Structure formats: C-alpha cells, structure tokens
TrEMBL record:
PANTHER family: UNDECAPRENYL-PHOSPHATE 4-DEOXY-4-FORMAMIDO-L-ARABINOSE TRANSFERASE, UNDECAPRENYL-PHOSPHATE 4-DEOXY-4-FORMAMIDO-L-ARABINOSE TRANSFERASE-RELATED
GO cellular component term of the entry, any: plasma membrane
CDD domains cross-referenced by the UniProt entry: DPM1_like_bac
InterPro entries reported for this sequence: Glyco_trans_2-like, Glycosyltransferase_2, Nucleotide-diphossugar_trans
Record-level GO BP terms: lipopolysaccharide biosynthetic process
Protein name: Glycosyltransferase
Annotated TM spans: 235-256, 276-301
One Pfam family linked to the record: Glycos_transf_2
Annotated source species: Polaribacter aquimarinus
Record has Secreted as a keyword: no
Length: 318
C-alpha cells in the first residue's frame, strides 16, 4: 500500500463526506493504493454514522471510534498503530488542510528520502490576535528549544515514513512535537513544505487560547524528556547529590564550629538557633528526595509497559 491518510476528528459531521471525496479524487488521479483512517475522538454528533456509511461504500475507508474524547495525540497514536501505507499522511478533518498537497508530500518521502515532512501554513486564514500571533510566538519558542528549524510545528498536515510513526509514541498532548520526538529517535532528515491553508467551511474551531498555554507547558516537558527522559538519574541524581553534599558539608561545619567555641570557652548559640542548621537540614532532605526521584524514574523506565491511554469502542474494515 502506498499511502495511509490518518484523520483524527471531533464533531466534524458536515465535512467528512466532502473531505473523503476530495482525498479519493487525488488518490485515484495519481493511481495510489491507499487507505483513509478516520479516528472519531468521542464525537457527540453524527460523525460516526457518516464514517460507517463511507466504510460501507468504500473499502479503503476505515474507522476507529473512541469510547470518549481522549485528545488528538491519542487519536493519532491509534491511527499510527494500524496504518499500513509506505507513507503516512496526517491531516485535520475540518477541510482546512488541502488534500491536493498529498502527491508532493508523498514524493518528498519516497523520492527525496525524507523521514518526515511538516506542513507550513505560511498564509493563514485564522484570527490574527487569537491564533496567528500566539502561534508565531509558540513556534519561535519551539524552534529555539528543539533546534528544529520548522515554522509551523502545529500544522496537522504532515507526511512520515511508516517506520517513523511505528517508532514514535505519541501521548498526552505531544502531537505538536512529533518532529521533535522523531528527531530524538534518530530520524534527522526532517523537512518542511509550504502548504495551502483553507478557511474553515463548517462548524467552529475546537481550539482556544488554552492550547497555547498547554503548548508551552508541553514544550518544557518535551525539552526535559529530550535530554533526560531515558536517564532521569543523570538529572535528579546529580542535583540530589550536590544538594546532599552541600547540606552535609554545612552541617559538619556548623557542628565543628560549635565544638571549637565550646572547647575554647567562647560564648555561642544553640545549633538549633543557627539558621544555617535548617538550611543544611533542608538541603540534605531535598538532596535525598531528588536522588530517590531519579532512582524511581530509572525503575519506571526499566519496567514500564506500552499501555494504551485510550479505549477503542469500535473499528471498521480492519
């Protein structure tokens, strides 16, 4: 199979038929062998019924239905697990991503041997204040932190080698950072393509300003995980050891200085009246806790299983 198109969605009943027809037209005109995987992330409208109807008419249409709304990352992860195409393309279901971009994305992966191509919506049809400006700030911070020179980390239109999406584990709210996760796994040939952005035709956006706050928090998380995710002891153990040494040294100095004054008959205060005693004690306790956190983190990494963080209610055509 040439291409798997993975489409997460939430309450997009009006756009699904049109989106399918558009994708099918592009695929058939280029004679691709393909599948379209719709992941219904707990829709409360008739989105699933539309997907059922499409799957009955077209064998290439497949569907996954979640028990409830788990989020875009979990939806993508479910689609990635079942995708069979040589190239996997993701896009949103709201018709703002243009399926006419598929052939060129496919060629960049197959012919130019890119591991991942991320779309760049250079010209956007979103609200400037609520979306465009926060998006630019977010992307600038992501570029600075990750080292990837991408302009639009959050663009839903991306193309991957199949092996990339089988290697990268997407969870939480990390779908924005799949290029960073891929880079961390050793896939360094990551490119970017300017893609057409369509104005929303149906419904309303599912995202508010809170997604940018969450995005920055996730950026901090991914930055930490990139450096210490597989070796937490290198971070927690190091700082724990330094703090414990500082606390122990301070406590030893306080005790030695106290004994010196007592021995020479010099008037002195109680050890417990010395503020440095509490600083030393707190440093030793925090150092111990940080060291234990690193140790527990190492144990979790060694014993963790690949548990899914979503529940699939139904599947179609798999």
């Amino acid at each position: 199979m040439d291409i798997s198109v993975v489409i997460p969605l939430l309450n997009e009943e009006e756009s699904l038929q049109e989106l399918h027809d558009w994708i099918a037209k592009v695929m058939q005109s280029n004679r691709y062998l393909y599948e379209i995987i719709f992941i219904d992330d707990g829709s409360t409208d008739t989105s699933w019924k539309v997907i059922e109807q499409l799957s009955k008419k077209h064998n290439e249409v497949k569907g996954i239905r979640f028990q409830k709304n788990y989020g875009k990352s979990q939806a993508l992860d479910a689609g990635f697990e079942l995708a069979k195409g040589l190239v996997v393309i993701t896009m949103d279901a709201d018709l703002q991503d243009n399926p006419d971009e598929i052939p060129e994305l496919y060629n960049l992966i197959v012919n130019d041997n890119f591991d991942l191509i991320s779309g760049w919506k250079k010209k956007r049809y979103d609200n400037v204040i609520t979306k465009n400006i926060p998006s630019k700030l977010f992307n600038a911070a992501a570029r600075k932190t990750s080292g990837l020179k991408l302009h639009d980390f959050n663009c839903g239109l991306k193309a991957y080698k199949n092996e990339v999406i089988k290697t990268v584990k997407v969870s939480g709210e990390m779908h924005r950072y799949i290029p960073v996760l891929a880079k961390n796994e050793g896939y360094n040939k990551i490119g970017e393509k300017v893609v057409k952005h369509q104005a929303r035709k149906y419904g309303e956006t599912k995202f508010g300003m809170d997604r940018f706050v969450n995005g920055f928090l996730d950026l901090i998380t991914i930055s930490f995980l990139s450096k210490f995710g597989k070796r937490p002891m290198h971070f927690f153990g190091l700082w724990g050891t330094l703090m414990f040494i500082f606390g122990t040294t301070s406590a030893f100095y306080i005790g030695a200085f106290k004994l010196y004054k007592v021995y020479h008959g010099i008037k002195t205060i109680l050890v417990t009246d010395n503020p440095w005693f509490y600083i030393a004690l707190t440093s030793m306790i925090l150092g111990t806790l940080l060291f234990l956190a690193g140790f527990i983190g190492e144990l979790i990494i060694k014993t963790k299983s690949n548990e899914k963080h979503y529940t699939v209610k139904e599947k179609l055509n798999f």
